[in-house]
Protein backbone atom coordinates (compact mmCIF):
# COMPACT_ATOMS: atom_id res chain seq x y z
CA UNK A 1 0.00 0.00 0.00
CA UNK A 2 1.50 3.35 -0.99
CA UNK A 3 1.10 6.42 1.17
CA UNK A 4 0.09 8.47 -1.89
CA UNK A 5 -3.26 6.69 -1.97
CA UNK A 6 -3.91 6.50 1.79
CA UNK A 7 -6.52 8.97 3.02
CA UNK A 8 -7.35 9.78 6.64
CA UNK A 9 -11.07 9.69 7.48
CA UNK A 10 -11.89 11.50 10.73
CA UNK A 11 -15.41 10.69 11.84
CA UNK A 12 -17.62 12.85 14.09
CA UNK A 13 -14.95 14.46 16.27
CA UNK A 14 -17.52 16.94 17.55
CA UNK A 15 -17.93 18.99 20.71
CA UNK A 16 -21.37 17.54 21.43
CA UNK A 17 -19.72 14.30 22.54
CA UNK A 18 -18.26 16.17 25.54
CA UNK A 19 -21.76 16.49 27.05
CA UNK A 20 -22.42 14.37 30.16
CA UNK A 21 -25.61 12.97 28.59
CA UNK A 22 -23.49 10.34 26.80
CA UNK A 23 -22.33 8.79 30.08
CA UNK A 24 -18.97 7.22 30.91
CA UNK A 25 -16.46 7.05 28.05
CA UNK A 26 -13.21 5.23 27.53
CA UNK A 27 -9.81 6.05 26.05
CA UNK A 28 -9.07 9.58 27.29
CA UNK A 29 -6.07 9.66 24.94
CA UNK A 30 -8.18 9.39 21.78
CA UNK A 31 -8.13 13.10 20.95
CA UNK A 32 -4.34 13.30 21.23
CA UNK A 33 -4.02 10.33 18.88
CA UNK A 34 -6.50 11.86 16.42
CA UNK A 35 -4.46 15.07 16.45
CA UNK A 36 -1.22 13.13 15.89
CA UNK A 37 -2.71 11.41 12.85
CA UNK A 38 -4.10 14.66 11.42
CA UNK A 39 -0.78 16.43 11.95
CA UNK A 40 1.14 13.62 10.23
CA UNK A 41 -1.25 13.63 7.26
CA UNK A 42 -1.00 17.41 6.92
CA UNK A 43 2.80 17.36 7.12
CA UNK A 44 2.91 14.86 4.27
CA UNK A 45 0.19 16.50 2.18
CA UNK A 46 -1.95 13.36 2.25
CA UNK A 47 -5.74 13.57 1.82
CA UNK A 48 -7.85 14.26 4.90
CA UNK A 49 -11.62 13.82 5.05
CA UNK A 50 -13.57 15.29 7.97
CA UNK A 51 -17.09 14.03 8.57
CA UNK A 52 -19.59 15.44 11.06
CA UNK A 53 -22.82 13.89 12.30
CA UNK A 54 -25.82 16.14 11.65
CA UNK A 55 -28.40 14.69 14.02
CA UNK A 56 -32.08 14.89 13.14
CA UNK A 57 -33.16 14.05 16.71
CA UNK A 58 -34.83 16.99 18.46
CA UNK A 59 -32.66 18.39 21.23
CA UNK A 60 -29.51 16.55 20.19
CA UNK A 61 -26.24 18.33 20.89
CA UNK A 62 -25.16 17.20 17.41
CA UNK A 63 -27.91 19.10 15.57
CA UNK A 64 -26.70 21.50 12.87
CA UNK A 65 -26.48 25.03 14.22
CA UNK A 66 -25.68 23.85 17.76
CA UNK A 67 -22.25 24.41 19.33
CA UNK A 68 -22.01 20.64 19.78
CA UNK A 69 -22.12 20.12 16.02
CA UNK A 70 -18.77 21.94 15.65
CA UNK A 71 -15.53 20.01 15.48
CA UNK A 72 -13.46 19.65 18.66
CA UNK A 73 -10.41 21.94 19.07
CA UNK A 74 -8.04 19.15 17.99
CA UNK A 75 -9.27 19.75 14.43
CA UNK A 76 -8.80 23.54 14.48
CA UNK A 77 -6.74 24.62 11.51
CA UNK A 78 -7.00 21.32 9.65
CA UNK A 79 -6.79 21.78 5.89
CA UNK A 80 -9.20 19.05 4.89
CA UNK A 81 -9.59 17.94 1.31
CA UNK A 82 -13.27 17.15 1.96
CA UNK A 83 -15.69 18.08 4.74
CA UNK A 84 -19.27 16.86 4.81
CA UNK A 85 -22.14 15.82 7.05
CA UNK A 86 -24.13 12.67 7.48
CA UNK A 87 -27.33 11.74 9.27
CA UNK A 88 -26.67 7.99 9.60
CA UNK A 89 -23.81 5.86 10.92
CA UNK A 90 -21.77 5.30 7.76
CA UNK A 91 -19.78 8.10 6.16
CA UNK A 92 -20.42 6.26 2.89
CA UNK A 93 -24.09 7.25 3.24
CA UNK A 94 -23.57 10.94 3.90
CA UNK A 95 -24.27 14.19 2.07
CA UNK A 96 -21.40 13.42 -0.36
CA UNK A 97 -20.71 10.30 -2.42
CA UNK A 98 -17.58 9.37 -0.47
CA UNK A 99 -16.99 6.22 -2.51
CA UNK A 100 -17.10 8.24 -5.74
CA UNK A 101 -14.86 10.96 -4.30
CA UNK A 102 -12.22 8.42 -3.22
CA UNK A 103 -12.34 6.48 -6.49
CA UNK A 104 -12.07 9.64 -8.60
CA UNK A 105 -8.80 10.40 -6.80
CA UNK A 106 -7.45 6.87 -7.06
CA UNK A 107 -7.61 6.38 -3.29
CA UNK A 108 -7.86 2.67 -2.49
CA UNK A 109 -7.05 2.71 1.22
CA UNK A 110 -7.79 4.80 4.26
CA UNK A 111 -7.08 5.12 7.95
CA UNK A 112 -10.12 5.69 10.13
CA UNK A 113 -10.28 7.57 13.45
CA UNK A 114 -13.04 9.32 15.39
CA UNK A 115 -16.14 8.94 17.53
CA UNK A 116 -17.89 6.57 18.41
CA UNK A 117 -15.82 3.41 18.10
CA UNK A 118 -18.76 1.01 17.88
CA UNK A 119 -21.17 3.12 15.86
CA UNK A 120 -20.07 5.51 13.11
CA UNK A 121 -16.43 4.41 13.07
CA UNK A 122 -17.18 0.67 12.97
CA UNK A 123 -20.01 1.11 10.44
CA UNK A 124 -17.84 3.21 8.12
CA UNK A 125 -15.03 0.64 8.38
CA UNK A 126 -17.41 -2.23 7.59
CA UNK A 127 -18.92 -0.48 4.57
CA UNK A 128 -15.47 0.58 3.36
CA UNK A 129 -14.26 -3.00 3.66
CA UNK A 130 -17.34 -4.25 1.80
CA UNK A 131 -16.61 -1.76 -0.98
CA UNK A 132 -13.11 -3.15 -1.37
CA UNK A 133 -11.05 -0.49 0.39
CA UNK A 134 -7.99 -1.42 2.40
CA UNK A 135 -9.17 -0.06 5.76
CA UNK A 136 -6.86 0.60 8.71
CA UNK A 137 -8.73 1.21 11.96
CA UNK A 138 -6.79 3.34 14.45
CA UNK A 139 -8.46 1.85 17.54
CA UNK A 140 -6.68 4.10 20.03
CA UNK A 141 -7.79 7.16 18.00
CA UNK A 142 -11.43 6.35 18.80
CA UNK A 143 -13.60 6.28 21.89
CA UNK A 144 -17.10 5.30 22.89
CA UNK A 145 -19.49 5.27 25.84
CA UNK A 146 -21.13 2.67 28.08
CA UNK A 147 -24.31 1.34 26.50
CA UNK A 148 -27.38 -0.51 27.79
CA UNK A 149 -28.66 -3.51 25.89
CA UNK A 150 -32.27 -4.56 25.32
CA UNK A 151 -32.35 -6.43 28.63
CA UNK A 152 -31.03 -3.41 30.53
CA UNK A 153 -27.58 -4.86 31.10
CA UNK A 154 -24.76 -2.44 30.39
CA UNK A 155 -21.64 -3.06 28.37
CA UNK A 156 -18.81 -0.76 29.33
CA UNK A 157 -17.12 1.46 26.78
CA UNK A 158 -14.02 -0.72 27.06
CA UNK A 159 -16.04 -3.87 26.33
CA UNK A 160 -17.63 -2.24 23.27
CA UNK A 161 -14.20 -1.00 22.14
CA UNK A 162 -12.77 -4.52 22.30
CA UNK A 163 -15.87 -5.95 20.58
CA UNK A 164 -15.43 -3.52 17.69
CA UNK A 165 -11.77 -4.49 17.33
CA UNK A 166 -12.80 -8.16 17.31
CA UNK A 167 -15.64 -7.62 14.82
CA UNK A 168 -13.49 -5.68 12.37
CA UNK A 169 -10.50 -7.99 12.65
CA UNK A 170 -12.44 -11.27 12.73
CA UNK A 171 -14.75 -10.22 9.92
CA UNK A 172 -11.87 -9.10 7.71
CA UNK A 173 -13.28 -5.58 7.39
CA UNK A 174 -10.16 -3.75 8.57
CA UNK A 175 -6.68 -3.98 9.98
CA UNK A 176 -7.04 -2.88 13.59
CA UNK A 177 -3.91 -1.21 14.91
CA UNK A 178 -2.55 1.71 16.93
CA UNK A 179 -1.69 5.28 16.10
CA UNK A 180 1.98 4.54 16.85
CA UNK A 181 2.02 1.68 14.32
CA UNK A 182 0.32 3.83 11.67
CA UNK A 183 2.69 6.74 12.15
CA UNK A 184 5.66 4.37 12.06
CA UNK A 185 4.59 3.06 8.66
CA UNK A 186 4.12 6.47 6.98
TrEMBL record:
Keyword Hydrolase: yes
Isochorismatase-like domain mapped to chain residues: 7-149
Keyword hit for DNA damage: no
GO molecular function, one term: hydrolase activity
Record keywords, A-Z: Hydrolase
Protein name: Cysteine hydrolase
Organism, as annotated: Amycolatopsis azurea DSM 43854
Amino acid sequence: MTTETKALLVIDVQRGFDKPVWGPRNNPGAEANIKALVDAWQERGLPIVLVHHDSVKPGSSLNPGQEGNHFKPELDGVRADLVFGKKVNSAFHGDIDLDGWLKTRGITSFVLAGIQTNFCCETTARVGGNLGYDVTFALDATFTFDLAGPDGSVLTADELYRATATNLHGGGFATVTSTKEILGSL
